[in-house]
Design brief:
By secondary structure, the chain is of the alpha/beta class. The protein has one domain: Aldolase class I (TIM Barrel). The chain is 38% helix and 19% strand. The strands form two sheets. Strands 1-4-5-6-7-8-9-10 form an eight-stranded parallel β-barrel, surrounded by five helices. Strands 2-3 form a two-stranded antiparallel sheet. It is globular, with a radius of gyration of 16 Å.
């Protein structure tokens, strides 16, 4: 299983005349992999996955896997309709994925118990380990410590991308040592690493990997 440490880059999705610029995407992925980043993330927040349809997301993933063989690649899996997300996860079973980056369902603001059930359902069918994505300013719901602990009991959950903005929660998660804690906001990288975090998923690494 991939070790979720170091600096991972959440790739932008280049466009040209209304279509994904696959040549630019492949060049970007190849260049970052050659620079020695720990891994790449496709269709995360920075990649504007919410503005891509399912076919575009899969095409972007295929382009990155082709351009950067041997570099660990995480795929974003976000949405509100659990059956569709389960189907997507199952359909990726033959791909060489290092992990799936999964936030809670957005807009509907589920209960903490509902969030646990949601992650367990996805982890049960996931072809690769899950990275829990705590990003309340996008999803409308913040993950609580006991919720993360409950999710982390599943053997297919390996890490958390922490964009919660709660230093106390970050320290608790690092101290808990159940998951690799990755900073998700560039401003928090130094503090997270000083506290013992495992690394970061950092958009700024596009500029200086």
């Amino acid at each position: 299983m991939t070790s979720f440490t170091g600096i991972w880059v959440p790739l932008v999705t280049p466009f040209h005349t209304g279509e994904i610029d696959f040549a630019a995407l492949k060049a970007l992925a190849r260049g970052l992999a050659d620079a020695g980043v720990a891994g790449l993330v496709v269709c995360g927040t920075t990649g504007e996955a919410a503005a891509l349809d399912a076919a575009e997301q899969l095409a972007a993933l295929d382009a990155v896997l082709t351009a950067a063989p041997g570099c660990p690649v995480v795929m974003g899996l976000a949405g509100k309709h659990l059956p569709s997300l389960l189907a997507s996860a199952r359909s990726w079973s033959g791909l060489p994925l290092a992990g799936l980056l999964v936030p809670p369902p957005y807009y509907i603001r589920p209960s903490q118990a509902g969030i646990v059930d949601y992650f367990r359902a996805l982890a049960d069918v996931a072809p690769a380990p899950l990275i829990v994505y705590n990003i309340p300013h996008r999803t409308g719901v913040a993950l609580e410590l006991e919720t993360v602990r409950a999710i982390a009991r599943h053997e297919r959950v390996a890490a958390i991308k922490d964009c919660g903005g709660d230093a106390g929660l970050t320290m608790d998660l690092i101290g808990d040592a159940r998951l690799s804690v990755l900073a998700g906001d560039d401003a928090d990288i130094f503090t997270t690493l000083c506290l013992g975090g495992a690394g970061a998923i950092a958009a700024s690494a596009h500029i200086r990997p």
